[in-house]
Amino acid sequence: MTSQETEIFKSKVTVYVFACWILAAFGGLMFGYDVGISGGVTGMDDFLIKFFPNVHERKLHAAESNFCKYDDQMLQLFTSSLYLAALVSSFFASKACTVLGRKPTILMASAFFVAGAIVSSAANVNWVLILGRILFGIGIGFGNEAVPLFLTEIAPIQHRGAVNILFQLFVTIGIFIANLVNYGTGKIHPHGWRISLGLAAVPGLILFIGSIVITETPPSLIERGKEEQGKAALKKIRGVEDVDAEYHQIVAACEQGRQVKQPFKKLFKRSMFPALFISNIIQVFQQCTGINAIMFYAPVLFQTLGFGSDASLLSSVITGLVNVGATFVSIYLVDKVGRRKLLLQASVQMLVSMVAIGAILLVHLGDTGTLDRVWAAVVVILVCTFVMSFAWSWGPMGWLIPSEIYPIETRTAGFALAVSTNMIFTFIIAQAFLSMLCHLKAYIFFFFAGWILLMGLFALLLLPETKGVPIDLVEERLWRQHPVWKRFFKNEEKVTA
Ligand code: BGC
What we know:
Elements: H1 3-7, H2 15-42, H3 45-51, H4 53-61, H5 73-99, H6 102-122, H7 126-154, H8 160-185, H9 192-198, H10 201-213, H11 218-223, H12 227-238, H13 244-258, H14 263-267, H15 273-288, H16 291-304, H17 309-333, H18 339-364, H19 373-391, H20 394-404, H21 408-440, H22 443-461, H23 474-479
Helix pairs in contact: 2-7, 2-8, 2-10, 2-16, 3-4, 5-6, 5-7, 5-21, 6-7, 6-9, 6-10, 7-8, 7-21, 8-9, 8-17, 8-20, 15-20, 15-21, 16-17, 16-21, 17-19, 18-19, 18-22, 20-21
Bound molecules: beta-D-glucopyranose.
């Protein structure tokens, strides 16, 4: 069989398989809902009075500079604690994914998430609130591990990028819905915050039902020795009877995989370095774009710039919409123009946006002044151009690329490590951004711009194109032909050696 033949297998998009994609993608909605909900909740007075009275006091009486109004470690911890739980749990999720399969892991994710919604919305004391955050976090750790893998594994190769990006699309929809919910519940006293946190149960429940309906992925079944079921699942999701070619390819990949007993140890072998490096540095870069400074704290950020609270909220709704819309661009383009071109184009657009925002704030926003209307509008537009380019590049590619560059034997372990790196850096940004804003002031945007420059160079020099490369040809096509990565392979050495 030639390489070309291994690439495109016969498939039809049936209603069932489409339903599987959409249901699984609700895992993204869970994640996005949480990204979007916590910033708004921490801004609600009722919530602050109940759990963080000191912060509320400070908020009322402090006469601080623009950039320092919201600098508070406890407040940031509320947002960030969840990511610590997600970080730890992604390793257990990796084990669950390998031993039990992707489907039960998704089921567990949704159960934890629903539990988190119930506990945190019913909380009356701080430790119960934190317990709720931890349950949410475990749900996210499990979901973010299993869902992108699931989507990548059930997608026909020619649509793999687009199907995987459904996860990111639902993340952005989740963020947007959360912004709208907060807008409504912020007016409901004193329990609006409970509704915000409790409504997280809705995507959790949909995913729960979804995880019963969806099929297990063929690679996961075959990897666990259930060849016949794997073949039947493959026929079902491809909508055709003749799946032999693809089936044999998966079986061969799994056979190699079975020889590896300790995937985490294998991850640190020399031949695995390119995948390990790329999948993790992409996570660092994704977070160091500064995206979550905007996603978590957009309302606070816009207030910092002197907007009134309604204008701030409206601006965050606008950026939320742009985030959703631009993700469609990615879905449309990713399997046509490839991953690298999107990343490169976006790096330039993000760099220009960040530098321009920083410059405007430096020149036009003093420590205690406000921006005039025209400059304020320009800043909102620049935030939009920034968010839009993130949404068609580093956002979705952060989940797509790590799910398609590992061989099967290290895939769940490698992906788990990438998920935790993402969570560590999400945690750091969530925990540090408001303090950094206070200390660096407008220069914080140049700080992010510096990172964006670096990641653009990375995409240019170190990232091979992964579009259309089948799993079993990753080593041959990506690493062995790359001027830098080929050094990690001796001529005769195989990835599984
Ligand atoms: C990132 C999140 C971010 C979101 C924004 C995701 O890819 O992992 O941290 O909040 O994109 O849309």
